[in-house]
Amino acid sequence: MKATVLYGPRDVRYEDVPEPTIQEPTDAIIKLSASCVCGSDLWPYRGANPINEPMRMGHEYCGVVVEVGSGVKTVKRGQFVVGSFCISDNTCPHCQFGFQSSCEQREFMSGGQAPIARVPLADGTLVATEEMPPEDLIPSLLAASDVLGTGWYAADAARVQPGSTVAVVGDGAVGLMGVLSAKQMGAEKVIAMSRHKSRQELALAFGATHIVTERGEAGVSQIKKITKNVGADAVLECVGTQESMNQALYCARPGAMIGYVGVPHGVKFDGQELFMLQRGMIGGPAPVRRFLPDLMGLILNRKINPGKFFDLKIPIRDVAEGYKAMDERRAIKALLSV
Length: 338
Ligand SMILES: [Zn+2]
Description:
Elements: E1 2-8, E2 11-16, E3 28-36, H1 42-45, E4 55-56, E5 62-68, E6 80-83, E7 86-87, H2 93-96, E8 107-108, E9 116-119, H3 122-125, E10 126-128, H4 138-144, H5 147-157, E11 165-169, H6 173-184, E12 189-193, H7 197-205, E13 210-212, H8 216-226, E14 232-237, H9 242-251, E15 252-260, H10 271-277, E16 280-283, H11 288-300, E17 312-315, H12 319-327, E18 334-337
Parallel strand pairs: 11-12, 11-14, 12-13, 14-15, 15-16, 17-18
Antiparallel strand pairs: 1-2, 1-4, 3-5, 3-9, 3-18, 5-6, 6-10, 7-8
The protein binds zinc ion.
Zinc ion binds at residues 88-89, 91-92, 94-95, 103-105.
């Protein structure tokens, strides 16, 4: 079998690897229906994270179960499943509290940019559909695995309420999903901060009511203008740089929550500054498993269509082009057919 392996900065290859097998009784093996490249894959691709040995890539996945270990009780062969990028048992105290991404047995999924993948802790991680979903819903179901679930978590963590004003920092796929999520949760104003025409159009299609193109102080003053000098009730930070974090902090009103889901790189907080600003923050890897059943329901009932952000569709053997196009911001998100 061939799979996607990252060797070093901008060196991603589709090459022969051993086919995954059951290693633990709680494992499942799935045949992927489609795969994709995540914005967070770009951190190691760009050399922002060290690569000590060749890395198997891909943590967003959905597909059909082909084999389960002897300890798997609820997931069955032949079922269509979507799983979170965070592997969880869904039974420990953190899972029960809704933070499956801090599961006592947490692992991070890998090896999903391939035709076949191994999923540990299958019972706790995977959610099955009642029947085989129609082909045209596969991209959206794949999105639920990470990027939609992460945007949803950002909005949940920022405590988006019906009627509220929400600012979304970042116009990548996760930011766009944050816009969709805030809209679904009943926000009255959803302000997308974006400088790119094609992404602005998608943000509007996903429910944004305002676009702010400015950044820094000018961006903050635009948010103030829209909110009668108050600031946003909830802010979603979907980038992970110091600039975007500052943007989020200063766009929020006192007492607001900031959901931050961009993986922070070089971000520092000043205790006294945070003290005086009076903003609440919660971030981290999204507990996608908590939201998966609801999100899959919204997709299967065609209430939301997150999959429309895939603007590059290529065969998985061309995965290197998918990384390159996203790195150069020629594509928002690359769908890989397997
Ligand atoms: Zn757990």
